[in-house]
Amino acid sequence: MDPGGAGGGRVAAGLRAYGLIAAMWIRSTMAYRASFAMTTFASFAVTVLDFVAILMMFSRVDALGGWSLPEIALLYGLCGVSFGLADLGIGSVERLGVRVRDGTLDTLLVRPAPVLAQLAADRFALRRLGRVTQGALVLGYGLAAVDVAWTAAKVLVVVLALVGGGAVFCAVFVAGAAFQFVAQDASEVQNAFTYGGATLLQYPPTVFAQEMVRAVTFVLPLAFVNWIPAAYVLGRPLPLDLPVWTAFASPLAGAVCCALSGLAWRAGLRSYRSTGS
C-alpha cells in the first residue's frame, strides 16, 4: 500500500491509523505508571548531560565561538524541542531496517492503512517527552537570559523555527528510513543524520568550517532549525550572509524537506521485495 498518496482521504486515513496505534501504545504504557515515570525521568536525565557538558565548557571560557552561554542555550533549546517533538512523533521509523530483515514489514503492507503511519506510531514511546521537557526548560532559560529587545517579528521567528525545525527533523527520519529499504542494516547511518545533526546544532556555526555550514544550509538544511532563526533573534549576522527573510523560512525548508523525503519513501517502498518473493 502506497502511503504517499496525495488525496486528502489517504492523509486522513493515515492520521486516523496513527492516532489509534499511538493511543494503544499509550494505554499500554500507562498501565505501568511507575515504569513510565522512571523511563521518562531517565530520558530527561540523559539529555541533561548534554547541556551539562556545555556548562562545563563555560566554566573555563566566557564565550564559545563568540556566543555567550544564554545564546548557546537558545540554540540548544530550539534544537532540543524541535528534535524531541520529531523523535516523539515519528522516531519509531528508524526501526524499519529491523522489520525488513525479520519480515515483519509484510504484516504492515496487508493492513488497510498507510505503512508510514503504522510504522511511525509503532511502539509509540511517550517517555520521549523527557527529551522535549529538557529542551523546553533550556529554551526557556535561553529566552529569558539573552539580551534581546523582543518584537513581534522575533517572537514569530521563534515559533516558526520550532514548527519548521520539527518538520525538518521529521523529514530526516523518514528519508533515513527510506534509505534502509536499500541498506537494511543502516540504522547507525540514519542516526548520524538525526541524533548527530541534533548534536551539531547545539553549537554555534562560528565553530565550524564554512564548508560544513554550507552543507547544513543548502544540502541538508538543518541550519533552518536554529542557526538562522537564532542569529536573527540575537541581532547577529545570518550564516553565509543570507538575506533577512530566510530567518522566517524554517517552515518552508521543512515543507520542502518533507516533500523530498516523501518521494524517497515512496521510491523505497516501491522497491521493497517481500521476504517471500
From TrEMBL:
<keyword id="KW-1133">Transmembrane helix</keyword>
<keyword id="KW-0812">Transmembrane</keyword>
<dbReference type="Pfam" id="PF06182">
    <property type="entry name" value="ABC2_membrane_6"/>
</dbReference>
<feature type="transmembrane region" description="Helical">
    <location>
        <begin position="132"/>
        <end position="150"/>
    </location>
</feature>
<feature type="transmembrane region" description="Helical">
    <location>
        <begin position="212"/>
        <end position="232"/>
    </location>
</feature>
<feature type="transmembrane region" description="Helical">
    <location>
        <begin position="244"/>
        <end position="265"/>
    </location>
</feature>
<feature type="transmembrane region" description="Helical">
    <location>
        <begin position="34"/>
        <end position="58"/>
    </location>
</feature>
<protein>
    <submittedName>
        <fullName>ABC transporter permease</fullName>
    </submittedName>
</protein>
<dbReference type="InterPro" id="IPR010390">
    <property type="entry name" value="ABC-2_transporter-like"/>
</dbReference>
<keyword id="KW-0472">Membrane</keyword>
<feature type="transmembrane region" description="Helical">
    <location>
        <begin position="73"/>
        <end position="93"/>
    </location>
</feature>
<feature type="transmembrane region" description="Helical">
    <location>
        <begin position="156"/>
        <end position="179"/>
    </location>
</feature>
